[in-house]
Amino acid sequence: MQPTPPTATTWTVVGASVAGTSHAEHAQPCQDAHAYATLPAVGGVALAVSDGAGSVSHAEAGARLAADTAVETARRLLAVPPVDRTEDAWRALLKSILEQARDAVVEAARAAGLPPREFSATLILAIVTGDTIAAAQIGDGACVVATEAGETLSLTGPVIAEYLNETTFLVSPNGIDSARFSVWSGTPAGVALLSDGFQGLALKLPSGIAHGGFFRPLLDFARNGGTTEGLTEWMNSPKVTAKTDDDLTLLLAVPAA
Fold this sequence. Notes:
- 30% of the residues lie in helices and 28% in strands.
- It is α+β, with helices and mostly antiparallel strands.
- Helix 2 crosses helix 3.
- The N terminus is likely disordered.
């Protein structure tokens, strides 16, 4: 049987990562990272957001490597349309990508002569096509879809831990096993990935339900020619920094006009 042809969709992607005010006050770099890659064979885009653990020595490097490896692996594995587009097949693909991202981070730690925990970072990955979103998440943050019907749905979200600041990371012993997966079928009007710095603004906690009023203007911004510079300016504005002092990442994708 021939694979179902992918829905022909091209994507506009706008993203930014900025240091939180608490990091800026201590001259610390932003420890968040994001990355994306187009997937022509499936009419889609791969999106990744990673948040390095603030308590480790190579958090920034761990986050950057996790995000970059995830999207590059997705691009490589989806260079041709997959024959099997079932939910189980998407989950297996996502797990493989997470494992390869973890292995890359572990190898970087080994090369630096450090334990992998010194590169600890979360990872959110989404494969977005014209009719499917396959998402995986380890740690905090969220992947959110806006539907053509006007709904805003959290596909993956944070796990509210028993203890404050208790987070599972990509290189944690149970990191891959803790991953949350979601495969959504439909026509997305927009997709957003965010790091945990935005959780209090963007999600109803502890349920993780997405605030539509937060995401709709941002996706409209991306849809109407918004730039990374404009998104960065808003993320650094008092309107945002008065409500959160953590590093911030937003990655927005909308179907191109």
